[in-house]
Every structure is written in structure tokens, then in C-alpha cells.
TrEMBL record:
Homodimer. The lineage of its organism: Bacteria, Pseudomonadati, Bacteroidota, Bacteroidia, Bacteroidales. Gene3D superfamilies: Aldolase class I. InterPro entries: 7-CO-7-deazaguanine_synth-like, Aldolase_TIM, rSAM, rSAM_sf. Mg(2+) binds at T39. It is an enzyme of class 4 (lyase). It comes from Bacteroides faecis. This is 7-carboxy-7-deazaguanine synthase. The gene is queE. [4Fe-4S] cluster binds at C30, C34, C37.
Amino acid sequence: MRKINEIFYSLQGEGYHTGTPAVFVRFSGCNLKCSFCDTQHEEGTLMTDDEIIAEVSKYPAATVILTGGEPSLWIDDALVDRLHEAGKYVCIETNGTRPLPASIDWVTCSPKQGARLAITRMDEVKVVYEGQDISIYERLSAEHFFLQPCSCYNTALTVDCVMRHPKWRLSLQTHKLIDIR
Ligand code: SF4
């Protein structure tokens, strides 16, 4: 059984896959407590893999995004295999502090200040900008680097930082801008 906060269908609002229709599987709970955390993820219902696959399969999109909270607390190879068997492209949004199944198709790592990374393979790095030194993340092996304002209140500072560090691209929470989930 895996503790699920919600499963819903929307567009990916952030990062490389912005605009892509996707089924979001939000797992419950996190091992960190970030001050800017904007998700209500603590509540949850225990679901079997059959129930998860049945719910995900209600929607036409191929992309499934495992998110949270911190999804690595609840996932393993067996779940990723089941999603692949259902024809899904499996993405994860993780804080990177815990190991992941190797078979995940796309890893979005959002490293948090002071939290040690436990993964080395990642496709994109997405950092919420709080004025911190972002050069420490440039050593990570990702292909894409996104800097995102903190709940849109420091957008101008984030734009300025990206222009000074052109390895990075701006990521906006576009789902909030157009008022979708
Ligand atoms: S790692 Fe993500 S889900 Fe966990 S507390 Fe921080 S922002 Fe929230």
C-alpha cells in the first residue's frame, strides 16, 4: 500500500515539460520542512498499486508525474514497472535526498539548502530562488537548470539572477498564473 494525497489530471506548470498534459500522483508526507512549501500533502489514503493504476488510467495522457510531499518515501521499482506496463512515461519531482528507482524516465530534482543529495542522475534541476548562491548547483549532472521565483514574490530578482547566470532558465508556476491545478 502507498499513501496517496491526491491523483489529478492537469498540465505540468513548471520546468522543462511546462504545458504538457500529465496525471499527477501526489504522495503524502515529506522528510524535509521547507519554509516556502506550498503543497498540502500530509493527508492521505492508502492505495494498492491496482487502485493507483486504475485511477491513473482514467486519463488520456501518457505522462505521469510522481510528486509530493516527497514521492521517494513511497515508491519502488514495482510501481514504476506497473506504470510502464500501462504505457506511461514516468516522471518524478524529488528533493533528491533519497535514492530512486533507476527505471524512472525523467528526474526533476529540487535540491534544498542544507539537505544532502542522495542521487546523482537527474534530468533537470529546479531551484526555488531565495537569494542563495546557485553556483553550487551548477556542478550537478543535469542537462537543464531552472530557477523559479518563490511563490512569484521575487520574480524580478529571479529574472536578474538568470541573466547573470545564463546556464539557468526561468521557470514560472504557470498553473498558478492561469489558475489551473
Ligand atoms: S521538499 Fe518539497 S514537499 Fe518537502 S517540505 Fe520542501 S518544498 Fe515541501
